Automatic annotation (TrEMBL):
Residues 18-361 form the Fumarate lyase N-terminal domain. The keyword Lyase applies. Residues 485-499 have a biased composition (Basic and acidic residues). Pfam families: FumaraseC_C, Lyase_1. Gene3D superfamilies: Fumarase/aspartase (C-terminal domain), Fumarase/aspartase (Central domain), Fumarase/aspartase (N-terminal domain). It comes from Fasciolopsis buskii. Keywords: Lyase. Transmembrane segments: none annotated. This is fumarate hydratase. Its EC number is 4.2.1.2.
Amino acid sequence: MPTASEAKMRIVKDSLGSLKIEDDCYFGAQTERARRNFHVSLPRDRMPIPLIYTLALIKEAAAIRNCQFGKISSRKCAAIIQACREIREHNFDDQFPLSVWQTGSGTQTNMNVNEVIAGRATEIIFGSKDNTEDDVHPNDDVNCGQSSNDIFPTAMNVCVAVETATNVIPGLEFLRDELQKKSQSFMNAIKIGRTHLQDAVPMTVGQELSAFVDQINCSIASIKHSLKSVCKLAVGGTAVGTGLNCSRGFDFALCEQINELLKERFLKEKFTVELCFLPAENKFAALASHDALLQLSGSFNCVATVLLKLASDFALLSSGPDCGLGEYLLPSNEPGSSIMPGKINPTQCESMNMVSLQLMGNHFTVTMAASQGQLQLNVYKPLIVHNMLHSCQLISDSVRNFTEHCVRGLQINHNQLERNVQHSLMLVTALNPRIGYDKSAEIAKYAREKRITLREAVLQTNVITAEEFDHLVRPEQMAFPMKRPPKDENGLSDSQHKP
């Protein structure tokens, strides 16, 4: 393979002059300048490729509508469409080398996409990237009616919305559904609840898991609500929000075309969320701020808190397992120690906890970046979309891993649950209506001091009879107090018995 010095070179030009680049590059002078000027944290922090594909989709939509508006020829339009589709089919990934750490408006990446599309479209028409007669121009043709200031934030919103709808929400629904199955399966498995990490009254494992089901449902609802604002696009605002050099109605036309291009994908893959993009009511706000993405990031932050608690509780309830709580039995996915044979660790829980903290960090970064909308343009756009897309991938990947390798294989230690229920002194709460709070507290204290069971303490102090105790202290009823209590042989329920 020839070195850079040996490779065939060609000359490209922009408003600052001429540059030499390798002949097989489809991008032009502006991309090359940015590549040289912003070599920061590469290749790790290249501009996310989903954003590139989204920009290509938007450029295709723009070409179609600009052709209809008479701004570009049908010949150029067809070539631009083909080039955009080839980009989205992963044929030109190596032509987008720029770092996230560039201009805060994303101009370099917008021009990178414009130049690659223009170069490939010119090649499609003329057989060469360098035709100068009537080549496809990156600014005049591909970027017609657009500015980086409105198209880059448009791409940010579309890309994040699509990633959220196609990966984040289905991933959370997958986790929720599996937790729901486990909740139903363990709904009658009685255990001791805990508050302040101390013993509380009986409940069931199913009830415990149902809390997470509801929390995840609330998170999904919050995300869907936030998506409504994310679907309002900056397109048509051009440089500062006034719409200079943009055809009247172009914003609505472009949104309509974006929806059409996305519709086929959404119908094909049967996603549960329908996205409908519309122009933002106020283009000035759409350029100067990113409140909608910040709100969505806040929803992701709420997801992080749910996932952190879920994973932490699973790890705690599986602790031991021989000398800890040991109520949950997690799948044995891999050896846990290089020195302690037979040790198994809650690795999926630990992975999820780290992901949750990273999500919180991403949200803090997005919060700070969104607050920097000085005057007419927020200039932290690449940072915002970089973190938002990172959060999308983290949530999607981690919840699927946790569901497949932890939740699905969750079992419970029935013996440990029963042992804990039998030894819990908080069962005394069921005696409150019969003997009162103070007397119940005395009984619990007596049992703890004597290190005996609650039943033994009641019998030793002659507070009530064994029959009364067995009738009142029934953990399975304590776990479902709102259900209709069973009648005794006299046709009376517990609540109808007089002290």
